[in-house]
From TrEMBL:
Source domain of life: Bacteria
PANTHER family (alphabetical): GLUTAMATE-1-SEMIALDEHYDE 2,1-AMINOMUTASE, GLUTAMATE-1-SEMIALDEHYDE 2,1-AMINOMUTASE 1, CHLOROPLASTIC-RELATED
Cofactor requirements of the protein: pyridoxal 5'-phosphate
Keywords: Aminotransferase, Pyridoxal phosphate, Transferase
UniProt KW Transferase keyword: yes
Pfam family, one: Aminotran_3
Keyword Transferase part of the UniProt annotation: yes
The protein's name in its UniProt record: Aspartate aminotransferase family protein
GO molecular function, one term: transaminase activity
SUPFAM superfamilies (UniProt xref): PLP-dependent transferases
Coiled coil: none
């Protein structure tokens, strides 16, 4: 049984080599790291290699990976078919200014699977995919504004970020707009072009869209917003989104950069949403940088240049590079209907096991997610939108301890984000996740005062 001082301080296994590299990193990077999403309390774990469902860090610690580079690696690490295909390709060139057949084959695969995609363009990241989807909606409608879900994450484009960093400080002030800037110095005009709506709240949706409709190009929506709680959509909410979009001539942009992994046809098809445009990424690159914008031919025509200058110009030095295209095709070909079903079955087993432990211990936790995704909340009532999922300081501290406990049990659990599964995981791996959570609840139960319960 682990002690609470280990839970708090994360001293459960050796990390001297990681600490050594972190010191070196602080000499060349702000804060010593190059991504704000990297956990560095007390220091980040530096990885030596990945093997299937596991990571091995520079200190030799072996960890079950529930992060998979933020849901990207649906087959885990070192997936041999991708590795072999890329190794063969490297000798023939990694990027060209001209197109290759590889971009066509990946495009054909995605168009065949995803009902909303008739034509597609490739870019280099999920952020780019969302950015160009928004620009395409603007070019098609001749309107500048967007509506987006409160608290959801859509990458680093100013208009997609606005309304992400909301907090309780503004919720009870009717004079404060929820379209708060994402960073200091963001032009105030950006917030004037962004309408923020609450997930699963039809009344809020209808009120806010009606007031901003003349300027709105699109409603940007993740079918199951991860950072906003990994909460399932109400069918009536998506029906309302489609009805109001049609009423005012607004396009629907589905951000499936993360949630495309929810089914063979993606998340929109799973939940009955019919978007005009889809932004994709992560799993479609097979572990290499990628993004894609797809949608109705009529809308995607804004990228066309066969009749002169396009309504929306889009390029990119590494867009549709053959390495990402080949890796993505091979990875996606391996994700058959059966592979998705198997992952979902494992996800169901883990979510059910976590909920059973919550009930057994009478703990104030809940679990959200679907398919190969899950998220644990330090709340007895399952949240239905971002405001309900928002962590109070004491809840955030408790979740930090949960992640450190999992780490000391040899499991890398994302703190405050979606945990995800890979095809490399086994039932035994899933049971280890449930066991680690049960152990944590036992510790909390045994020390209610110290644990803040």
């Amino acid at each position: 049984m682990f002690h609470l001082d280990i839970l708090r301080n994360g001293r459960g296994f050796p990390r001297s080599r990681s600490e050594h590299f972190f010191k070196k990193g602080r000499r060349v990077f702000p804060t010593g790291i190059t991504r704000v999403t990297v956990d560095h309390e007390p220091s980040p774990l530096y990885i030596s290699r990945g093997e299937g469902a596991y990571l091995i860090d520079v200190d030799g610690n072996r960890l079950l990976d529930l992060n998979n580079n933020f849901t990207t690696l649906i087959h885990g690490h070192g997936f041999l078919p991708v590795a072999d295909a890329v190794a063969d390709l490297l000798h023939r060139g990694t990027c060209f200014s001209n197109p290759t057949e590889h971009e066509i084959t990946l495009a054909e695969l995605l168009i065949e699977r995803i009902p909303a995609i008739e034509h597609i363009r490739f870019v280099n990241s999920g952020t780019e995919a969302v950015m160009f989807a928004i620009k395409a909606a603007r070019a098609f409608t001749c309107r500048p504004g967007i509506a987006r879900i409160e608290g959801a994450y859509h990458g680093a484009y100013d208009w997609a970020e606005t309304g992400q960093a909301v907090s309780p400080a503004i919720w009870n002030d009717p004079l404060r707009s929820p379209a708060v800037p994402a960073y200091r110095g963001m032009p105030s005009s950006v917030g004037e072009e962004v309408t923020v709506i609450r997930f699963n709240d039809i009344a809020d949706l209808e009120r806010r869209i009606a007031s901003a409709a003349p300027s709105l190009a699109c409603i940007l929506i993740d079918p199951m917003p991860s950072r906003a709680g990994l909460i399932a959509p109400e069918p009536s909410f998506f029906a309302a989104v489609e009805a109001i979009a049609k009423q005012y001539g607004i396009l629907i942009v589905a951000d499936e950069v993360l949630n495309l992994r929810q089914s063979y046809m993606g998340a929109s098809a799973r939940y009955g949403l019919h978007p005009d445009l889809v932004a994709a990424g992560k799993i479609i690159g097979g572990g290499f940088p990628v993004g894609a914008i797809g949608g109705r031919k009529e809308v995607m025509r804004v990228f066309a240049s066969d009749s002169g200058k396009p309504l929306l110009s889009q390029g990119g030095t590494f867009s549709a590079n053959p390495v990402s295209m080949v890796a993505g095709r091979v990875a996606m070909e391996a994700m058959t209907d059966g592979a998705f079903a198997s992952l979902e079955s494992l996800g169901d087993r883990i979510r059910a096991g976590l909920r059973k432990e919550i009930e057994r211990h009478g703990a104030a936790f809940s679990v959200t997610g679907a398919a190969s995704l899950f998220r644990i909340h330090p709340k007895g009532k399952q949240p239905t939108d971002f405001r309900e999922a928002y962590l109070a300081p004491e809840e955030a501290e408790l979740m930090g301890r949960l992640s450190r406990h999992f780490l000391n049990c040899g499991i890398l659990l994302p703190n405050g984000a979606a945990a995800c599964l890979s095809t490399a995981m086994t039932i035994a791996d899933g049971d280890a996740v449930i066991s680690a959570f049960a152990d944590f609840l036992s510790i909390l139960e045994a020390t209610p005062t110290e644990a803040g319960m």
